[in-house]
Amino acid sequence: MLHRATLFAAALAIAGAAAEAEQSRPDIRVTGEITGADHQTYREVPFDVPEGTERITVTLSYDKANRTVVDMGVWDPARFRGWSGGTRDRFTIAPGDATPGYLAGALPAGHWKLLLGVPNARAGSRAAYSIGVSFDRAGTRNASAAIADPPLGDAPGWYRGDLHMHDAHSDGSCRSRGGRKIPCPLFRTVAAAADTGLDFIAVTDHNTTAHFGGLRELQPYFDTMLLIPGIEVTTFGGHANIFGPARFVDFRVGTAAVPDIAALQRAVAASGAILSINHPALPSGEQCMGCGWTWPGTDYRAVTAIEAINGTTTDGPLAGLGFWYARLNEGHRLAGIAASDNHDPDVAPGNPPPGPAPVGRPRTVVHADALSIPAILDGLRAGNVFLDIEGTSTRILEVEAMAGRQRAAMGETLPGRRRITIGAHVIDAAGALSELVLNGQPTGARHEVSSGNARLTWTLDAGQACGWLAVNVRDGRGKPLLIGNPVYLDCSASRARR
Ligand SMILES: [Zn+2]
Ligand SMILES: [Zn+2]
Predict the structure, then answer these.
(1) DSSP labels for 270-308?
(2) Distance from the CA of 254 to the center of ligand 1, in angstroms?
(3) How remote is the CA of residue 265 from the centroid of ligand 2, in Å?
(4) Is the N or the C terminus of the chain less surrounded, counting Cβ atoms within 10 Å?
């Protein structure tokens, strides 16, 4: 402990308001030096955790020349909270999840101690180190909750994902080694998804964040598929997936804790997540308890997506397509998505409908700037998204609409009351039929998809061009293969503009 004095004298900067705007700067920075005199000793680095802290992230960097090695661990005011030795340069702890090696749980305010162990520092050596401590508190989010950090892919493009599945942390099950039906370990579900070639998944256990820690453990191994923490918020009036929450969201709508659906929606927004209404057209009541979406007062401005297709319910009145289209016709702007709602990773990829859907069928294909959680969530918000009903790895549906020189992809807006040209690029659906939909109704303008790499065009007269349009692709029996998201035609703005 020779160098404690040096340490306390080291710069200890508590970030002010300016740093809150600059997310990369930690709330506390401690710098110091490890010398040969620290060889095989422990050093304590105290730091104060403020009231109301929801997550702590600690980073350590040091000069590794001369083979200096620094181990890391941490105590809260009362107990030991974990150890990562020399294997990690950062960790995060929150009530619901923590870096492997660390204990999730309450984050008491007060004096915490980072423990630095020094298994090796050569005589006469000097190694500078820098520690950053960041906090999430109400209103400020400086700690990184990232499960995948940095992005798994940094190129813009189409990314294929399944946004709805369950494992042992709720009601997912599979066969044990002994052949019994058991609550299915999270890694089986994640492995089944990776085996189908998906780019991303959201694991959405009912009303819990208990699987978040497991995702944190699995992500470095599944380094070709992004793992998005999700929760299926399961209420008596409907189910909604939330993607990317930084914390638990109370699901008890109709109690003092969550008086109404608007209160739930505010809590979701405060958690940093986006909300998607699940299987909205399923029946409710004793047939399927709380399955359909029946909440009055839903604020659709705070809804990002509708699960238009859930599992094998791809068509007909129980599919969510009609519910989604009805909301679009009311003027709401909502992305349509498709997901398996898989509860058993043993379901074979080719399992025919109406049997249970395997992980990865159907899938949602999102145009995103990168393969990272923020980029995929932004892609869903932007709505350049299509639904691949059979869960292929190859089908593409790109749509671009034009009004004069103005262009819009799915999710974007063109001025209405103009002549609109619509182009679709359809890959790997030769022999299918592609139809133009206007305000939820097929226009009757259909094209055969003549090749595996087809470009199709339609036009809309100025008199028709208000509301929204979409392109869908169906097989010869009328079953949906690809469902496009809307291009919006804004007739309120068109007069004002010119
Ligand atoms: Zn559900
Ligand atoms: Zn579900």
Answers:
(1) HTT-EEEE-STTS--STTSTT-S---TT--GGG--EEEE
(2) 18
(3) 19
(4) C
